[in-house]
Amino acid sequence: MATKKFFFIIILQLFLFWPVMAQSAKTVEVKKAGTLFELLSEEERLGLHELTVIGNLNSQDMIVLRHMAGAKDKTDSILWTGSLRILDLSKASFVNDKKPFFKIIAPREFSISIDVKYKVRRINKRTGESTVMSHEEYMEELNDRVNSNSSRMLNGTNVGKKPNRIENLHPEKRTIHLNEIDKEMWKEIKNWKLNVHSDYYLDYQEEDSTFYLFCTMAKKKLSSCMFYNCVLLERVVFSSNIEYIGNNCFQNCASLQTIEIPKRVEKIAPSAFKKTPNLKNVYISKKPANKFLELDDELIIGKFFSSSSPDVTIERY
Predict the structure, then answer these.
(1) Among 95, 178, 291, 302, fewest CB within 10 Å belongs to which?
(2) Which domains does the chain have, with CATH numbers?
(3) How far apart are CA 114 and CA 191, in angstroms?
């Protein structure tokens, strides 16, 4: 009799809690980038523990995933966070999207490299003498020559062959630290060509007089700060076509325990796994697609994991 009562209680509990258990995991196909929010109910966004996503994802989708995984961003107006622990993106792809999914205050020691001037070298074909001049100076000289030749043609005079050969030189580089830049200087240089990465850009916001780094999505990249502060995330799987893991990508993922490095990864930023104290298992293919992941396991641990994840081990599969 006691045994029957025990089984009755078990069956009753399964009946009562099955809907909750069934909703703890879900697979969703995103047919149009930017629609993940619409494909999940509020209960799912808040309560799912495990999520598999198929399809193309942009910055708007990344915002949803970040908050589901516990990120609380001081720089946006979203207040809710979910319960997501396990995220499978093995059949998902990222699209290029210049709209930011995250912004962070740029440190004052942050520096930018600017193409200040574009220079050319003029070489006299007859004498071999060379002269370096700015692009602006060269254009002025070229315009003068065009005008002179036009006058000669009008007068019936032979123009002749060009006596000079022109070679483009690399742009001059100047490194500027943020603590050197004020509001007026920024207005002058913001339209210059800035030497920044494809997955973030620098900008100044006048409303709070602050420089921010704006993180964006890029194909085949785990962008900088992609999972920054996703404190609930324990395990994440990515597509094999990922080639780069960006700066601070998993910083402050305090619950992260397991990650698989895609076999085509060519570069990992040194700060990618900063402050991931519970990371223990890193899986890397025995047959990676490039030499970077053929490095000795201890070297990889020492370079990217040891300071933040003291108990980490690498397993080759």
Answers:
(1) 291
(2) 18-112+195-316 (3.80.10.10), 117-168 (no CATH)
(3) 10
Cα 257 to its chain centre, rounded Å, is 22
Backbone angles phi, psi at 302, to 5 degrees: -65, -35
Kindly report, residue by residue over 272-316, the tens digit of the pLDDT.
Answer: 999 999 999 999 988 888 888 888 999 899 988 888 888 899 999
- pLDDT of 39 > 90? The answer is yes
Angle at 187 between CA 186 and CA 189, to 5 degrees: 60
What backbone phi and psi angles, to 5 degrees, belong to 225?
Answer: 65, 20
Give the other-Cβ count within 10 Å of 64's Cβ: 23
SS3 257: coil
**Eight-state DSSP code of residue 245:** E
The 8-class DSSP code of residue 293 comes to G
Q: Where are the alpha helices (DSSP H) in the chain?
A: 2-22, 36-39, 42-47, 59-68, 135-155, 183-189, 297-304
Nearest Cα to Cα of residue 112 among 207, 44, 179? 179
Cβ-in-10-Å burial (0-12, 13-18, 19+) of 263 comes to middle
Task: Work out the percent of the chain whose per-residue pLDDT is above 70.
Answer: 74
| Range with the poorest average pLDDT among 170-179, 218-227, 236-245 | 170-179
- The pLDDT tens digits of the residues spanning 164-222 come to 565 555 556 667 778 777 777 787 677 655 555 678 888 888 888 888 889 999 999 99
User: Which pair of tokens denotes residue 155?
Assistant: 């007068």
Distances (CA, A) of 268 to 81, 251, 262, 265, 292: 28, 13, 11, 8, 9
78 and 192 Cβ atoms separated by less than 8 Å: no
CA torsion 307-310-312-314 (nearest 10°) is 60
